């Protein structure tokens, strides 16, 4: 039940009122929650007030509208301000605002995409800008839509290296559809920031990276408004507005005071009074499309519902209809708008024909991935590929040759690579990001946050394990499975041959969440038929007899060692089952439990540290059955490797065929046989 | 058997000869190894020749001498050049050089501290400079010795954000004891770098961060020599020398050619010929201390052993004794040299008295850590503390107040924080680095590499788990145990009460390798006596009876839930054992196996994702016993948390007392009892 009317005072006064409403609401919701970061929010209230009332183009009723601007609070702890903004634009009500930080509320301590207006979760500082850069690249190169990306950063987070990876990417990509607003309140969690209010220091850094910079008083409404217009109109470079502000602005008890970070104001009622009381202004945000609807009639900031009662005492101020100055529209460089990303969603990938490798030939899984990815690009126009300057090694170079317009070189900046992937999937694209398995660890925080963002990104790590050989441990992914398994909702796939890799590359395209494909460097035998289907959560029983005394569970390169070990064991009269557990997460628990019951003994073998890899996945699956477990022997990399040939490495680490055979024979020799023998259960098939 | 004599030509010619020797040796060792990065090495040969012959102060016979300069190859793939340099200075012989990249050789694909002259492992780009900054901070603030830190970077790695975290730290710390040499060869792995030879672009960026910059021709011996002198003499700022070079310099077949990265030269014999053949010059490097020994007699580059035969055909050139220009000594700002770090190694920590918390009171483990750390600083003058701008939260602020001279604010730059820790431990200091557990993921690659560096660093992560409460998932470390367990040689400790935390804080000080202490935010009951001793690898059996039907294994906050669950179970007539597995890695396998045998059923409960945490550690320990395993039920965080109170979070995630009791009761109800009952084994004691 909104009552809209014209404000009677000038624009500046009206925008100040909006800002004060935002501040009051920050104070109120933090007070009700008894936690939160109101002071870090209050410093940026004027910036956000001017942004939503005069510059943002966004239909809050249609958050997925393709022409909407994107607004990212990189300083996610300013969530009170974000939620106060949502109330100001009418997206949420006061009742929801007051459920801030409570059980089952969408208004979490830091914004997440549980709210439809939030593109990505923030709260780990220095990530919102890199992801915003990813969205801006999509806007410039893929969507070719005139939306603008607005990112609100804190000053403290500019210390993160990821900010400068983003600055380099944005500057070199001339992203003039990106405006970054830095709330330079000069105070961090524990005291002054490094540069306090020295916006010139930040400006010099951004300029060096090719940015257009503006330094303003972040509490001067007119300066802010002018800066936003100038920034948006500046062609050929991203803009950063460095706004000097005061933390806790407007409340003397906390304004620019240390010790007031991350806690409610000491006296909320007094603070609200000092801020002029509770307001109930609704801001009409210009819609993006069609363009004429963006023009807010001069002199209008329509109001929303009448003021309502709430838990914190309020001191309402009278609201006035005031004439606004005519709004300046942004000069957006003319581009041919492409179809929205969602319209380009492609045919189901099952129709796709992966590259074929002859059974019995030798091939590297990284080669298979590269070839498959290039072909996938033919049938899936939504697939985009990101490289960390190792495309020769990961083989994404093959995609680059076939589809240069959907290939993005991120250079040696893995955090920005992952952030770009996250940003592009916000726009409906299907990103694959590849580097050495080891170097995905550089972006682990981004991967962790991608899961909280409910992002769907595909990661590919090459040169996994000691089988990489001579390059030494710095280049060997030996913790990648552990790290990627411990990501919420992730999928972890470790193929052992080229046809399996090719198929799974296609499977990845339709997987939700964070998925990971692990490839290796050298060539291994092709053991599966071309075009054979592999499902997430599946496995392959490669050797099987009703008399099996032990099961060897392997993935990736160790599958081939396991097969050879089974031959060695057969020579000694021991019948060993071999399972290719290519899907490490989710692992094929049903098949594992069946084989545990049938063979009573399991040897797991992986080219990975012992912690958190295949062996632990197998143990966890067996434990989840609730029954007593079989004897399990875990073979893994237990000493620090150096340089050696790939096969020497496997031998040294005790994960080669001889070591597997020895471990299996010992297990058979020392343990009683299985308690029951039945046929192989469902969920697995006999491989070639 | 060296034969030294004066060179007859001018210095430039002599230094060029040294550079050509380095190039030839890069070609030779890569040819013998059939792998490696000779072209990335050859571009920097002139830089390194001038460095070792005229500027480095280093006693290769005493690599740990406290006055030695530090030389870090941040571009670790230029290992052929590093090893060629070692031969040139007489540190290794040709025989060892030719074992490059082979089994058991110290000369790995990328340098590691298996060589006594290597401070830290490199090979993950963008790490050598941040660590060098850490060493330079130690030189300036802790050691107060006039050594210089030299870092050789590639141009490609300047895209890494970690480089700019380091640039900011070094610039703001005015590290004029740091000289960075960037080998701008303009080619990456897959093609041109972003800026090719535009050294002005890099210079602008470094200048913006407060650096002194020099742009030179990296193949002009005299320009190089001058730049090194000017850089070292420049007061008040770190210097970066941006040297334009050509990859594969000196061999036309590969010089500045794409497709020649990371592989031996196509025709080594021809290349060596083109480079003027094999040489056998030994370079006398100036020693650091006492200063007079640094003065190389004018006109001398003494030679080493006579030329020897080797696998690759050689074309030796005649060597000449030449007069050198008088050497310019560096102007080193006068400082009071402190004792070398190793002399400050302190009394054994067992004499230390940790802070005491009254049993039965409530306390947070982060508070206990902060108080313990401050007291530890009193008795351990080698302890230094690094903060990621969250010292209020982690409680390292208490150390800052007590020992400001050994507290270093790294601001919100977790990669630089870990790199500083690694750099300081190179100098014998005992660093503790603390941030939120979640944000250690930001520096995971640095932690991974620290293990390869054989570095001893202590990491402390606060706000672990969903018990953090309202802040939401971005702030909750839920993958920290998985990530830290999967680090080679790491120790992972998860204390549950204040006295245990305080004791373990002291234990950390003497632990080798990467160690991790996980703390939580809220207050929990103090259950242990003040001063009670806890060992790495130990556990505490908190509830025990000979009739126990099930064991609950917990760590951290879940210990308290487990104790309450045992009470609930007792009410239902079920006798439950409770084990505090505070040492998650190494876990107390003996106690776990004993309890498995005795109770036959185990419930593990952790405030962490199910993958790679306490439950997996317990399963792995049980499996390692080789015997069939008991029924194990793993309770962990299995859905994405939002905001809620800490206790609501535990309940929602099914890791609270009621969930534990239910799981234990179900296990007892559905499973047969233990097969054998004996007394509790060694390795565990009954707690208070």
TrEMBL record, chains A, B:
Cofactor(s) in the UniProt record: Ca(2+); Mn(2+); thiamine diphosphate; Mg(2+)
CDD domains listed in its UniProt record: TPP_PYR_DXS_TK_like, TPP_TK
Pfam family, one: Transketolase_N
Enzyme class: transferase
Domain Transketolase-like pyrimidine-binding: start-end pairs: 363-526
Coiled-coil blocks: none
Gene3D superfamilies: 3.40.50.920, 3.40.50.970
UniProt keyword annotations, A-Z: Calcium, Magnesium, Metal-binding, Thiamine pyrophosphate, Transferase
Gene Ontology, cellular component aspect: cytoplasm
Gene Ontology terms, MF aspect: magnesium ion binding; thiamine pyrophosphate binding; transketolase activity
EC number: 2.2.1.1
Keyword match Transferase: yes
Subunit structure and binding partners: Homodimer.
Similarity annotation: Belongs to the transketolase family.
NCBIfam families: PRK05899.2-5 (NF004559)
Name the UniProt record assigns to this protein: Transketolase
